[in-house]
Amino acid sequence: MPLTLTDITKEFGSTPALRGVSLEVRDGEFLALLGPSGSGKTTLLRILAGLARPDAGSVRFNDEDFLALSPRARKAGMVFQHYALFRHMTVAENIAFGLKVRPRKERPTREAIKTRVAELLRLIQLEDLGGRYPAQLSGGQQQRVALARALAIEPRILLLDEPFGALDAKVRRELRHWLRRVHDETGVTTIFVTHDQEEALDLADRVAILSAGQIEQLGAPQEVYEQPATPFVFDFLGAANQIKGEVKAGRLLAEGCSFPLEEACADGPVTAFFRPHEVDVNPEDGEGLACVVATVAARGAAVKVECRCNGRLFDVEWSGRELPAHVKVGAKVKLAPKRFRVFAG
Ligand code: ATP
Hints:
One of its GO terms (molecular function) is ATP binding. Pfam families: ABC_tran. With 345 residues, this protein is of the alpha+beta class. It folds into two domains: 3-235, Rossmann fold (3-Layer(aba) Sandwich), CATH 3.40.50; 239-344, CATH 2.40.50.140. Helices cover 26% and strands 36% of the residues. The protein has helices spanning 41-49, 71-74, 91-100, 110-123, 139-152, 169-186, 197-203, 221-226, 231-236, and strands spanning 3-12, 15-25, 30-34, 56-61, 64-65, 76-79, 157-161, 190-194, 206-211, 214-219, 241-248, 251-254, 257-260, 268-274, 279-283, 289-299, 302-309, 312-319, 332-337, 341-344. The chain has a six-stranded mixed sheet, sandwiched between helices. Bound molecules: adenosine-5'-triphosphate. Residues 12, 15, 17, 35, 37-43, 195 line the site of adenosine-5'-triphosphate.
């Protein structure tokens, strides 16, 4: 394993930021660190970059003690949310900066630096803008320059902290796909911090989901989405409805109804979750939880319906399927989740 983190802990005063994080990052992998605000993502990245020290734990890079190395010796490329480009330098000078400040014996010749900058400008598709200053670029272009600057030193590892966090949704989506292409072209091991589930699931080879300084689950996007290890992961990766119930002989008994379960589950009290898009809304004489339609609202390409059952609201979402005629505000309906995720307790 190129990068192995073992039992990393870090406290700020009495606030635990990381509570025993162990993680192996594969060579050439694109790994997303995903978690809510305050879960410890940035702290973990700063420890890898050498900008912070853990209280305990180790980080090895190809069997080398990574924590014993100075930030520069680690050869990690970093990009932060707020473009830290040098305002008084052109785009080309910004990209060349990391190479120009390398120790003399590692420093490439002027010509080699020029060639490398031209290569990187091509990679970030800003060939013609090398002479511009950062203030003359859009936010998305500035982040591409920041990435080129991080790649210039041929980093052993690329650390990205919410690099698109300050950009609008459309630019963000474009850059996401572009970043994945750049990664595939360079093959550099990349750790990408985000609190955006869609971004992480869309972009990464594997996703590590952090909560309160601990890794809740690590796996391929499909795996963590389809087989969440904990209720937190299920809830964090998408909209979720929750009901309490009991499993008996392969069926879920909840709110006076009985539902078949797809997966084997031990008998006993459970919390069951279902996604808003995995629900049928049957007419009043059909099967399911007795509800009243509380709201029907168009949300872009989808229609969002809220159904009230014993004073609680369940979310239902339609996209790509027509809303049945009986789903109207005030109508009595039966809610039939098609798939549950069940957790004991
Ligand atoms: P965000 O998405 O908001 O950036 P994060 O997941 O990156 O959050 P961290 O910034 O790593 O989380 O913070 C983890 C915890 O450590 C939080 O409780 C935070 O308040 C605390 N923390 C982080 N840096 C410091 C610091 N320099 N001094 C004190 N507490 C800190």
